[in-house]
TrEMBL record:
This is Flavonoid. Belongs to the cytochrome P450 family. Heme binds at C206. Its cofactor is heme. InterPro entries: Cyt_P450 (IPR001128), Cyt_P450_E_grp-I (IPR002401), Cyt_P450_sf (IPR036396). One of its GO terms (molecular function) is iron ion binding. It comes from Musa troglodytarum.
Amino acid sequence: MHPEHTLNCSEVHNRHWRVFRCSMLLHESVEKPVSIYLEWTWSRDKGRAESRTASMRKRLALRLSMVIGNYGANTSSSTVEWALAELTRHPDVLKRAQLERDSVVRDPASLPLMQAVVKETFRLHPPTPLSLPLMASEACEVSGYSVPKGATLLVNIWAITHDPASWPEPLEFRPARFLPGGRHESIDVKGKDFEIIPFGAGRRVCSGMSLGMRMVQPMAATLAHGFDWRLPAGMRPENLDMEEAYGLKLQRAAPLMAYPVPRLVPAAYEGRC
Ligand code: HEM
């Protein structure tokens, strides 16, 4: 990360970018403060010098990448980035999610559409596509396959969440699947429904699952609610690059570049940072 592009939380605060309430969100989730950095890539056409002193109302290109420097945080920030990319690509869903939260500001837990957006993001872009490697502690047979003792096993989470037998139109972003009346309305992502196991399942299920959920859901909801997300001039939502970069984690091949346009009254952004 280039130092010029790095602002810590207090700098964000000083520059009136309080809206992200970044430390507040994370301090709610962890016992002690964590060093948090937002990585910003400024809009080239406005000029770097001007951009660095720009006020909140100026539009800046934002690379949404919250770096805490560990795997758990990267999976969470990458999920938020994917969710915002999908919402930017589907402005109708973003608008409905904003209206949903407009009506229930005080209880983010009761945001069925936003919860469905997060589930659909976990399904379409599972942050750990091949889970983590596991080793068979003894020889066994699974569905007719012999697994020798000591074999390394990877669970293809991506393939499971893209299986057309479970997920009609598996490549489409359809949060409505998880809404009341949708085919998957009662499906959860916490390891009991094997059609979607972004955190794994069973004894070795992700031990940071609660923390991950507590970071992803409110961050995605806050960023979606606080801003309209506009693409650089000339780029249409349907042309947004959604290529995935595979590895231990599934991240965007190209970082999301979008303009956060404040949509609430200024007082709404005066959170404590
Ligand atoms: C969106 C967020 C996250 C996702 C999608 C995710 C996903 C996963 C997956 C798929 C596994 C492998 C589970 C298995 O083998 O069945 C795993 C394991 C693990 N995760 Fe996460 N994770 C996330 C966040 C976190 C966070 C925030 C932490 C810690 C702060 C964390 C810590 C761990 C640890 C320690 C394991 C190994 C558990 C074990 O083998 O007993 N994860 N995670």
